[in-house]
Design a protein that fits this description.
Layout (H helix, E strand, L loop, with lengths): L10 E11 L4 E11 L55 H13 L1 H18 L4 H38 L2 E5 L2 E5 L1
Antiparallel strand pairs: 1-2, 3-4
Helix pairs in contact: 1-2, 1-3, 2-3
Length: 180
Amino acid sequence: MRSRWPERPRLLLAVPATHWDHENGSLTGRGVLKSDPQVPPPGGQPSPGDPQQSYPQQNHPPQGYPQQGYSQGYAPQGQQPYGGPPAEDPGRTLGIIGLVLSFFTAIIGLVVSIVALRKSKKAGFTNTPALIGVIVGIVTTVAGLVIAAVSIVALTAVLSQCAQLGPGVHDVNGVTVTCS
């Protein structure tokens, strides 16, 4: 019985097309896709009947490229290699502080959260606590402004009513108003 799938799938490999940039002292270039019918199937072992092939290890620069100053993963000295642990977000702690402050002092929490969010974006991180702090700070600031505006309008209405009625205790539409 003939299978409808080919015996060996063709795999597309991302092969970096790089060159050494002498001015910057680094490898530069962009990746290309390359079809390689000689690649073993997933699992890393060639299928039976295939000649044994050896593949070069890829944890060092190609021959002819300078090797000093490089660690495993092609990273120049002072930078993280590809497989290394990620760098820490510089605005994360400030974002958490801004989030907490935005519940108690909305404007201060909003400012601190915005500073933390900008620090994180500049370093290439997404800072969720800072983003939530900005949102909470904006919402609580707007809510505070609305409450303040309603309070001012209500106080102005009561004061103008007392100015019309004069000092004393008055009954207006079933509501007792005391003016002094």
